[in-house]
Amino acid sequence: MTDAAAALLGPADVRAIATRLGVRPTKQLGQNFVIDANTVRRIVRTADIAPSDVVLEVGPGLGSLTLGLLSVAAHVTAIEIDAVLAGALAETVAERAPSLAGRLDVVEGDAMRVASLPGPAPTAVVANLPYNVAVPVLLHLLEHVPTIRHGLVMVQAEVADRLVAGPGSKVYGVPSVKIAWYAEARRAGAIGRTVFWPAPNVDSGLVALHRRPEPATTAGRGAVFAVVDAAFAQRRKTLRAALSGWAGSPQSAEAALRAAGIDPGARGEALPLEDFARLAEHRPVRT
Ligand code: SAM
Fold first, then answer.
1. pTM metric for this prediction
2. Which of 11, 119, 150, 279 has its CA 20 to 30 A from that of 77?
3. CA-proximal residue: ligand 1, atom 19 (nearest)
4. Ligand 1 pocket, 44 CB below 6 A?
């Protein structure tokens, strides 16, 4: 990677831009800006961006990560919900990386609702995600932007653990199974609090994603996600009990589980995605 063409932001730059724009970071939008150029270099290096990659960045904020990504990617499309930040990004890039400014598209909007994007189709997602909406944003993008093949996201450490957890783990749950529908997820590092302004009161973690084929099932994604939601809504219960509402009765739940080859006395936390996919095929038709 070379960032020779982009002058990355340090703490004084971040504060100066924020002051100029009158930005006061809000918790509501998960605004914790990276003030450490080494962290940006590390994220960009770990993201393993090829020169042909088109990166979708969620929440560019003041542009810390955007500048690093522009140095290595063919194109960056940045979607930012905060109108002031979205409006200022092109200018920051023009000042700090003028030769790369033509590689950037900025979209002002909500990454959880985005349906179409300008410019070339994204092949990668790289983001320091707003922590309160990290999982729904990620699921939305993996569903609606099927050209994304890989990614690297920074999230709250506990969320990182959940995203990468496998069956049997205490933190295996709805996010783990739903992400697994789209991608293989693995931990790619830990990030401390001091690299942000303002410093969050939680640690952060990096998660690397690689798109994988969706499981072979005649049940659609919606049907599979419905049984996943039901199984984990009462995660301490056996599947026979937890899925009685989903199936119509405990007896129907037991029959569906047996038909799918799953022990009705097991708990949802023991089941891999493939079992949920098979189980969804056996949901009783309700009249
Ligand atoms: N990428 C910047 C950095 O690393 O310094 C900022 C990261 S900050 C953790 C999250 C950013 O996401 C903020 O700029 C915030 O305004 C933006 N944001 C929050 N919710 C969003 C949403 N639903 N869609 C798009 N951007 C969002």
1. 0.95
2. 11
3. 29
4. no
